[in-house]
Design goal:
This protein has 1 helix and 11 strands, in the order αβββββββββββ. The chain is mainly β. The strands form 2 sheets. Strands 1, 2, 3, 4, 5, 7, 8, 9 and 11 form a 9-stranded mixed sheet that branches. A two-stranded antiparallel sheet has the order 6-10. A hairpin with a 5-residue loop joins β7 and β8. The protein is globular and about 45 Å long.
Length: 127
């Protein structure tokens, strides 16, 4: 049987994630990776990195956040790190719609400007 968390517990867990991302003296980062874990582009997040409403953590940036790609490949996943590059969240989905991290283009070339349109993560009711 799966463990079920109350809405209050889910919100507390998401706030803990935000606290870990923002714990250092600098801003956290969102790194876009290939399926082989090569870094394609790194976005420096705001500090605080986002906000929590219920069990949804939303990255905070307005307007769209841009960064210059450091690698070439297809965006397959993303991680969020703190300012010391310690991974806080991994396994985020990446694409041009319907994913945790929405980019303007999933096919990335070194030197290209990549735009981050949205970034959200929702706590499961279980686990």
């Amino acid at each position: 049987m799966a463990v079920i968390y109350s809405p209050t517990a889910r919100t507390a867990r998401m706030n803990a994630v935000l606290t870990l991302i923002d714990a250092g003296s600098g801003a956290g980062k969102l790194k876009i990776l290939t399926s082989a874990d090569a870094v394609l582009v790194t976005f420096t997040l705001a500090n605080p990195a986002g906000s929590v409403s219920g069990d949804v953590f939303t990255l905070d940036f307005d307007p769209d956040l841009t960064a210059t790609a450091s690698g070439t490949g297809t965006a397959a996943k993303a991680i969020i790190t703190d300012d010391t590059d310690t991974t806080v969240v991994s396994g985020l989905t990446v694409g041009t719609s319907g994913t945790n991290v929405v980019l303007d283009n999933a096919s990335i070339t070194s030197g290209q400007t990549v735009t981050l349109a949205t970034g959200t993560l929702t706590h499961n009711t279980a686990g």
